[in-house]
Backbone:
């Protein structure tokens, strides 16, 4: 029994001595968390749908044989009510200085933005009203934009060149033509309905907010203003004898609100 106690004591003392000789346990370093930042750098292709509205002022320059639908240079406002527009856009962005984004883009929108006004100055054939019509068929832009990003949100402004294709007409005039007045219809006189169309250039400014709801997808809302100044447009009355042409002055501006969605391709940046 005495020998058993001595052996146990020796084992205990030996274990303590061995434990004292072992090095202290090294601390375990926690893994470093990787923070992923969204980058707007890249190119994109997308579509949009929205509404457009505006105002077209149509006036008549001084005519050699008198005025046909308004006193000289007195504009008649044709307000175009909200109409549908939709199309596609393509562009590229570059994010720099942490939060700033610089980009360039182009878009094209088919449009059905139109309006009609009644002539307040003169009456037409058989005392009926003279009607003025304006319709925008498409819009296109080439713009630069600059924005401020915080992670997946981007607030931006844009500006650049714009183009539009429009149709105009004047209905129920008695006569038409410059410098020679023509009566419409033969052998029985009917109302003149001169028409014309043009593609015109102008400028645009816009403001938008975009949200990257997935790594390669973004959606947003954009407001655009288009200014096209004043241009002279020739309207032709095909039923005049012979066909008669005469100029009108057209001043135009358009506003549009668009919902946009883009598929974004990675380029130089990371998601």
Residues:
């Amino acid at each position: 029994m005495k020998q058993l106690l001595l052996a146990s004591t020796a084992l205990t003392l030996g274990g303590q001595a061995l434990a004292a000789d072992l090095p202290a346990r090294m601390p375990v370093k926690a893994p470093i968390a990787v923070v992923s930042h969204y980058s707007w750098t890249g190119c994109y292709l997308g579509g949009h749908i929205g509404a457009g509205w505006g105002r077209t002022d149509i006036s008549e320059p001084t005519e050699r044989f008198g005025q046909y639908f308004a006193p000289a240079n007195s504009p008649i406002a044709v307000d175009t009510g909200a109409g549908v527009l939709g199309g596609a856009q393509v562009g590229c962005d570059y994010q720099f200085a942490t939060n700033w984004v610089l980009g360039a883009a182009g878009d094209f929108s088919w449009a059905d933005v139109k309006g009609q006004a009644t002539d307040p100055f003169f009456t037409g054939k058989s005392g009926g009203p003279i009607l003025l019509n304006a319709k925008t068929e498409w819009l296109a832009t080439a713009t630069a934009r600059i924005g401020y990003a915080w992670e997946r949100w981007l607030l931006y402004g844009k500006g650049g060149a714009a183009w539009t294709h429009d149709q105009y007409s004047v209905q129920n005039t008695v006569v038409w033509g410059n410098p020679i007045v023509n009566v419409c219809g033969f052998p029985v006189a009917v109302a003149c309905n001169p028409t014309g169309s043009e593609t015109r250039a102008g400028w645009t400014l816009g403001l938008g907010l975009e949200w990257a709801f997935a790594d390669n997808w973004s959606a947003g809302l954009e407001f655009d203003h288009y200014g096209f100044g004043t241009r002279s447009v020739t309207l032709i009355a095909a039923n005049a004898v012979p066909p008669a042409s005469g100029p009108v002055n057209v001043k135009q501006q358009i506003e549009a609100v668009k919902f946009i969605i883009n598929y974004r391709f990675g380029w130089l940046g990371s998601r």
User: Anything to note?
Assistant: Confidence is low (pLDDT under 50) at residues 1-15.
